[in-house]
Amino acid sequence: MNISGYEFLEDRLYNKEHCWLKKEGDNLRIGVTDFFQKTANEIVFVELPAEGRVIEAGKNFVSVESGKWVGRIKGTVSGTVVKSNGELADFPYLLNESPYDEGWIVDVKPSDQSFEAELFDLNDAAQLESFKGFLEEEKQRIAKLAE
């Protein structure tokens, strides 16, 4: 689905940190959105959490560096990292080229399901409209920062 020039897949949930989450059995696969990668520009470095690390919702768990930006990604879910995408260490550009497939970041076993209340489900009409509004606000915020 195209929203304001950015692609979003309907089989995932989205957060306000510009990440997506997709259920994979008992685990969640987490990555960044098309909006994230286009806003960051060329990703040149990704520091991943180690497998077995416990992450907390609202706390930083991944570092990302692009040609114009260095920052951290906050977790939406608390749980244990069961797998990190080691390909990103050598090929960080996968976040740009394939943010929804090859550029996934981690698989996490959530400690509970409370995270779902904080996510946007684009298959729900009301949540889709809310997400569109959020995305427009983000575009305006980032445009002001660039001035």
List the helices and strands and how they pair.
Blueprint: E1 2-3, E2 6-7, E3 13-14, E4 19-24, E5 27-32, H1 34-40, E6 43-47, E7 54-55, E8 60-66, E9 70-74, E10 79-84, H2 87-90, H3 94-97, E11 106-110, E12 120-121, H4 125-146
Features:
3-stranded antiparallel sheet, 147 residues, alpha+beta, globular, OB fold (Dihydrolipoamide Acetyltransferase, E2P), 4 helices
What this model shows, in words?
The protein has 147 residues and is an alpha+beta fold. It has one domain (13-115): RNA polymerase II/Efflux pump adaptor protein, barrel-sandwich hybrid domain (OB fold (Dihydrolipoamide Acetyltransferase, E2P)), CATH 2.40.50.100. It is built from 4 helices and 12 strands. It has helices at 34-40, 87-90, 94-97, 125-146, and strands spanning 2-3, 6-7, 13-14, 19-24, 27-32, 43-47, 54-55, 60-66, 70-74, 79-84, 106-110, 120-121. Strands 7-10-11-5-4-3-12 form a 7-stranded antiparallel beta sheet. A 3-stranded antiparallel beta sheet has the order 6-8-9. Strands 1-2 form a two-stranded antiparallel sheet. The radius of gyration is 15 Å and the shape is globular. The relative contact order is 0.20.
